[in-house]
Design goal:
The chain is elongated and about 160 Å long. By secondary structure, it is an alpha+beta fold. Helix content is 52%, strand content 17%. β13 and β14 form a beta hairpin.
């Protein structure tokens, strides 16, 4: 026993995992799906057959009941008329002339029959036939003649052993069978009162075959129905209909099942149990293709369901197997590399299962070995220091690129003016210049408030104003709410310098430099504009390209430094735009989201 178990376990352990997955899939998934579908299909097929049998029985009983109600309605009307003693008296009376009959007709007989028609829509006509010659034929009252005595329905009435009977026959005009009209009538001999039998009286109530035909056609989806009389003749069917004209009065019903198994396709029920319906039946032939189609539909559904489940489970197993197989192969390949002293990490989604744990532990082990061999820990610290120095050097480089020409120009201008005009009132200018130099040389903090930046720009503009005198002027439009936010140092001064240097020096008339700050749409908006010569569209495109280029140098250093430093601090969250119209001036704006300013650099005065 233990040997067998051990041998079986060994065999299972020797099977590759791929094949184990396939066996699990076939035995644990596909086989149950197939068995369940077969059992489900067999059970559903039986249920469909049972349901269809019930539907056929319901359909046949529904049609029988409706047809019986139509006939019973006619019989009820006939009973009411045949027991109307007053009607007997009027029909049994001998009238002296037609005028006397018409007077009686107008008073008593005209609406006597018509009162039954509105409430019995299955009735087509009510007629009373009598051999009283003093009655004038017309409407519902007819005098018997040779045509009536020779008709099928009258002969059946004379030969009938019951007072009331239902008969199907064809009436023809001019003895032309090709134009015969099928008729279904309730016929009753009116002899209920012995003292009023002076003349023969026969009541005939014609039923509307359209109503019966609609009932038979209504059930056509379930059964092919046949209304059969006591002579085994088909009075009505869905195939022929009562409209069909044949040389024979009615065809015989010969589909009662002559072979084995045929009886199961034919269902016959009696229309009613009354004597006047004795022999009348309804035969229903099942539509075999209906059950076959229902079974075919459920089989197709089961096949589609099985196919869908198989595809879904196959896809699921494939994903599971691929996840396992791919990671195991990568783990095996990297283990071989470690044996060759190549310490590479497995850079895939490890996962949280057992294989993911192996990969994670392998990466930790590989990383640890590599760190111990190459002293990775020290190298990482050194790398971080180098990165910090690189960023610091880049910032210092950007700061050192500030164009000092304006300082030299200002000093030269002061020297020339003082020498030429012997000025002595240049103290304020020298003080402002001294503050500028001191601020440029001391770079303790890279972030300053907007108010400090505005103060610095104002000192710079005073110097420029001293240089150019009345050639230009400047305007500040400052939102008080914006003064407390901190921005990178010298983010605005190079823009003002560009306006002075490139925008206003070459124009005639008064130049205006406008510096604006505002808080709009949750952003700190800063703009510097001038009414100088502007920039041509092509040159503007080149300028925008140059300031965004990583290794751009040469001209436009000041504006590029502003853009680069804003980009270093706020990445792609800064909106930096330059718009210019030749001859009208240039507008430079940039906007910083308040959430970045408030998140990283809280407002002054906040804790």
């Amino acid at each position: 026993m233990w040997r067998k178990r051990f041998k079986f376990t060994t065999i299972v352990n020797d099977i590759p995992l791929n094949y184990k997955f396939y066996l699990i899939y076939i035995v644990g998934v596909l086989l149950p799906i197939m068995v369940l579908n077969l059992v489900f299909l067999d059970r559903i097929t039986d249920l469909i057959k049972s349901r269809e049998q019930q539907n056929l029985e319901i359909s046949l009983e529904r049609a029988r009941k409706d047809i019986l109600d139509f006939i019973e309605g006619g019989v009820s009307v006939g009973y009411a008329l045949s027991t109307d003693k007053n009607l007997y008296e009027m029909l049994d009376r001998t009238y002296t002339d037609s005028i006397e009959f018409y007077n009686m007709f107008d008073e008593q007989l005209r609406d006597r029959m018509n009162s039954y028609m509105p409430v019995n829509n299955q009735l087509e006509r009510i007629s009373i036939y009598t051999d009283n010659r003093t009655i004038v034929s017309g409407g519902n009252y007819q005098v018997m003649n040779d045509k009536v005595w020779a008709s099928d329905w009258y002969r059946q009435a004379k030969n009938s052993s019951t007072q009331v009977f239902v008969t199907a026959y064809r009436t023809s005009e001019n003895k032309n069978l090709a134009s015969s009209i099928p008729t279904l009538s309730v016929v009753e001999t009116m002899d209920n009162y012995r003292n009023l039998n002076k003349y023969e009286k026969v009541l005939r109530i014609d039923l509307d075959l359209n109503e019966i035909y609609d009932i038979i056609v209504r059930e056509k989806d379930y059964l092919s129905l046949y209304l059969i009389n006591e002579q085994n003749k088909i009075v009505m069917s869905a195939d022929s209909g009562y409209q069909r004209l044949t040389k024979e009065p009615y065809p015989l019903f010969d589909q009662l099942g002559n072979g084995q198994g045929q009886e199961e396709d034919v269902r016959i029920v009696a229309v009613g149990t009354a004597n006047y319906l004795k022999g009348w039946r309804i035969a229903g032939i099942t539509q075999g293709e209906r059950i076959s189609q229902a079974i075919l539909d459920i089989r197709l559904y089961a096949a589609a369901l099985a196919t869908t489940l198989t595809l879904l489970t196959s896809g699921f197993i494939y994903i599971m197997l691929r996840s396992y197989n791919y990671r195991v192969k990568r783990l095996s390949r990297h283990m071989q590399k470690v044996s060759n002293e190549k310490f590479e990490l497995i850079t895939i989604d490890e996962g949280r299962d057992e294989i993911g744990g192996l990969i994670h532990n392998f990466n930790r082990m590989t990383s640890r070995i590599h760190s111990l061999i190459n002293d990775v820990y020290k190298l990482e610290i050194q790398s971080k220091n180098l990165e910090m120095e690189r960023v610091r050097a880049e910032l210092n480089f950007l700061q050192s690129q500030m164009n000092p020409h304006f300082l030299f120009n200002t000093l030269n201008a002061i020297l020339v003016v003082c020498t030429k005009n012997k000025y002595s009132d240049v103290t304020d200018i020298v003080k402002s210049l001294s503050k500028l130099l001191r601020r440029l040389l001391s770079w303790k903090e890279d972030l300053v408030s907007v108010q400090e930046e505005i103060t610095f720009i104002e000192m710079y503009l005073k110097i420029e104003k001293f240089r150019f005198r009345d050639k230009f002027d400047y305007v500040f439009e400052i939102d008080e709410q914006s003064l407390k936010y901190k921005i990178p140092k010298l983010s605005m001064q190079p823009l003002v310098e560009n306006s002075c240097k490139h925008g206003l020096q070459t124009i005639e008339g008064l130049g205006i430099i406008r510096v604006s700050t505002a808080v709009l749409d949750n952003r700190l908006q800063i703009s510097v504009s001038d009414n100088g010569k502007g920039i041509e569209p092509d040159k503007l495109k080149e300028l925008l390209f140059a300031i965004r280029k990583e290794d751009s140098s040469g001209a436009n250093i000041g504006i590029r430094n502003v853009y680069r430093r804003l980009e270093l601090y706020y990445a792609d969250q800064v909106r930096f735009e330059i718009s210019s119209t030749p001859g009208l001036g240039t507008l430079v704006t940039f906007g910083i989201p308040l959430r970045l300013l408030e998140m990283n650099h809280p407002l002054e005065g906040e804790v």
